[in-house]
Specification:
The protein is built from 5 helices and no strands. It is mainly alpha-helical.
Length: about 140
Amino acid sequence: MNKSEQIQRLKADSISTLESLQKEALARRFLVGSHNGVRLKKSLAGIQRLDLERRTLLTPEVHQAHAEKLSKRYETILQKLRLKSHNNWSKIPKAYRLSKPTDTEIAGNHLRFLTLVDSVTAVDANQTIFLIPTFVHIF
């Protein structure tokens, strides 16, 4: 067997090996206590998307950057709500005013936070719309 034949055989074997590893990965569950990084890497390898490994929310750097952006966004929203609430409060005649609204009261009246991760799948808008009533009934 010459070198080119050996290379072709190895390429054919690597494709079949990859396919069998992917089938095995899809059939097995992760070990309890395994790290998210390990799970992510195995999952991405199973669908041949290791290029996304350092670009998901499970990556500490991406997670931190996302958290900072989200925090700034909500701080801006809260500042606007605070200003509007305090302006509305100051328009009330002094005889009828109660205490000035606190940040907790303002946020409680205007902001709602819900984080729910049931599973991670490919994005499918129709399926998402279909599942929303299910989650609404849970809460």
